[in-house]
Amino acid sequence: MNKKPLANKKPLEGYRVIELGQLLAGPFAGSLLAYFGAEVIKVEPPGGGDPLRNWRVVKDGTSLWWRSLGRNKKCITLDLKTEKGRELVAQLIDGADVLIENFRPGVMEKWGLGPERFKQSNPGLVYTRISGYGQTGPYAHKPGFASVCEGISGFRYVNGFPDEAPVRPNLSIGDSIAGLHAAFGVALSLLSRQASGQGQVVDIALYEAMFNLLEGVVPEFDGGGVIREPSGTTVTGIVPTNTYRCGDGKFVVIGGNGDSIFKRLMEAAGRTDMANDSRLANNAGRVEHEQDIDKAISSWCQNHTSAEILETLEQSRVPAGPIYNAEDMLADPHFNDRGLFEQVEINGEPLKSPGMIPKLSDTPGETEWPGPEVGSHNEEVLGELLGLDQEAQQKLRDDGVV
What is the DSSP secondary structure assignment for residue 343, as one 8-state letter? Predict the structure, then answer.
C-alpha cells in the first residue's frame, strides 16, 4: 500500500488487521477499519469465498453488495480446516495488530487459534470476537443470527404496530450495529495499547449491540414499572412525531414535538386553535391529545402534495422530510454534495458505492478499490508477508490449502 505524507495519513494507517469473519458483522467492522486506512487482510475459504459474494443482486458472478463490503481489503484464501491453513493464519495473526473473527464460540479454540495462543507471541494483539450471545454465559453456545438476536435484545419488541407481529427493518441491522461496536472496541483497545503496550479481547455480542440502542427502556421499567410497547409510526411519549400520507400518495415525516415548533406547525396547518390551545402547550398535554393532533395533521397532509407540505414546513422552520428510496438518494444534491457516493470501476463499468462515516476534516477515509475477487492477494500476502516462494505457493494450491 502506498503511504501518504504524514499530514494526510488516514487514522489507521500502519495497523494490520486479519479478518476471519464471514457474512456481515465481522466484515462490516473490517470495512470500517479498512476505509480509514488499516491494512485489512481478509481470509476466505478456497473456492467460493465469503458466501456474501453471492447474495442479493449478482452481476458478472459477484454480488454488488460485496463490492461495497469488501472494499479496500486484501483477499486471500486459506482452508482453516487444514493444519497447514491454520499454521499460516497463525503466522499472519502473529504479525498483526488486530484480529476479527465471528465464528461460533469455541471454534477458534478448537483450531488452536484462541486468544491464549497469541498471549506470548503477540501480546499487543487486539483479539476481536463477534458472536450472537458473547463468549460467556448460558446462551454462548446458541447460534445467533442477527434476526434472532434483534428479537431477544428487546429491539424488535418496540417495532411495529400494537397487537401485530413485530416488524424488522429490511436490513441486517443487528450485524451492522455489532460491526460498528466491534470497530469502536478495536479503536478503544488500540488507544489503550498506546499506554499499556498490551492488547486485549474485545467481546461483541449481537444481542448486546442491539440492547445498547434501547434508550430508557430498562430504567423506565425498573423505576416506573412501564414496558414500552410498539407504537407504529410514532414514538411513545413524544407528540407529534409521525409519518403522514399526502394527497399525491407519498409520505412525509414530521417532527413537531418542540413546544414552539408545535405552535408553528399547527399555524402552518391552518389550525391556529390548536396552536394556541393551552392544553397542548407542552409535551405532556400533547401526549394526552395525541389522536386529535395526529388527525388534524393527517387531514392537512391529505389535502396537499408532499412537495407542498415540505415547502410550507421548511418556511415555518418545522423539521420534516420525505421518505427516500435508493433512487431518490442518488438524485439528491445534498447527498451528492456531502460525498455520500464514491464511484469505483468493476470490469470497466462505473459503480456507485456508499461513502462511510464519520467525516474527518484532515484525515478522511476513502474507497481505494472495490471488493476484489476471491484470492486476489494470495501472491502478495503469502509471498511478501509470509515469505513463501512460488514453489511453496504452488504446493499449497495443489494441496487445496489456498
Answer: E
Which DSSP letter does residue 275 get? Answer: H
pLDDT mean values, one per 10 residues, the chain (402 residues):
57 98 93 98 95 94 95 97 97 98 96 98 98 97 94 97 94 97 98 98 98 97 97 95 98 96 98 97 97 98 98 98 97 97 93 95 96 96 95 96 96
Amino acid letter, residue 327: E
Q: How many CA atoms within 13 Å lie on the side-chain side of 17?
A: 33
Domain 6-213+340-398 has CATH 3.40.50.10540: yes
Rounded Cα distance, 124 and 141, in Å: 28
Q: Where are the beta strands (DSSP E) in 4-161?
A: 16-19, 39-44, 58-59, 62-63, 73-77, 98-101, 126-131
* Closest by CA position to 182, among listed 24, 318, 326, 356: 24
- How far is the C-alpha of 56 from the C-alpha of 64, rounded, in Å? 8
- pLDDT value at position 327? 97
Helix, coil or strand: residue 382: helix
Instruction: Identify the bridge partners of residue 129 per DSSP, sorted by sequence position.
Output: 101, 203
**Pairing verdict, β 58-59 and 98-101:** unpaired
Residue with cell 501518504: 4
DSSP state of 21: -
Taking the C-alpha atoms of residue 214 and residue 204, their distance in angstroms, rounded to an integer, is 17
User: Which residues are identified as catalytic?
Assistant: 175
CATH number of the domain at 241-322, out of 3.40.50.300, 3.30.420.200, 3.40.640.10, 3.30.1540.10?
3.30.1540.10
d(CA 132, CA 148): 9
Element (H, E) at 109: helix 107-110
Name beta bridge partners: 354: 341
pLDDT digits (tens, 9 = 90+) for 16-53: 999 998 889 999 999 999 999 999 999 999 999 999 99
On whether the CB atoms of residues 377 and 41 are closer than 8 A, the answer is yes
Q: Does the pTM exceed 0.90?
A: yes
Domain locations in the chain? Answer: 6-213+340-398, 241-322
For residue 193, the number of C-alpha atoms closer than 13 Å in the C-beta half-sphere is: 20
Contact present, 69 and 28 (Cβ < 8 Å): yes
pLDDT reported for residue 6: 46
